[in-house]
Specification:
single chain; alpha+beta; Ribosomal Protein S5, domain 2; Alpha-Beta Plaits; 2 domains; four-stranded antiparallel β-sheet; 10 helices
Amino acid sequence: MTVKTPAKINWFLHILDKRDDGFHNILSSMQKISLFDSLTFNTADGILLHDGSGIRENIILKTIDILKKYRPENVQGVHIELSKKIPVSAGLGGGSSDAAATISALNTMCEMNLSDQEHFNAASAAGSDVPFFLGGNFSFVKGRGEIIEGNDIKQSYDILLINPGIKISAGWAYGHNDKYARIDDWKGLTKVFINAINKRDFAVLSDLMVNSLEKPVFSKYPEIKEIKYDLKQAGAKCSLMSGSGSTVFGVFEDAESACHAMNKFPKAWTKVVKTLS
């Protein structure tokens, strides 16, 4: 069984407060994009992950350990081949997407027959962003990531991703944030956002595209802030750091404009993608 696992961008990310369990409450909009890892699952005598990404503690193995707690007799042996295309520790959710795909694939392949609640609980235990990847292409996300409100988006956007090769721990980024957002009318905010994204209203989108984590990340890595500025200079209608970084994305009028702008970043990892709708 082979599955493709998409990356994501955060159109906005507001950190609201810190919870008693150490996590943070957020309000974010997340959308899957046309950049994929690939996972191939086969039965085996033991648990084996063939992974060329160089990640020491891969979330896939963590996810398998979580699944064993639900159906230990079912998860006995699996060989997983990971083809990594999504940059690591880059704010694009690659690991979380891989974890979500692992839960769904092993539920089927190992005949685990997880209930919907068990499926969701396993995803939440694997990571805060993992539940998002179990659902549709676009969602508003609240809580620590477990409260998900899906929406249908009519438009697809041409996106240029720029990654300078800096790996940023989400824990570090959240831990160094010292300012919390106050959103009095989150339903109103999401309604305005949906209207703007469906109408391709770049002016309103630009105003709404805020990431609370830019402040601590830009303070330590000013070169990432420069990328955001340079994207706008290169013709992006709006730009933002995705998640905890270090990837910054620019939203362009069309793919040709995005490809032209890509040539202005010869030292960085770059990719032109589309949002999935």
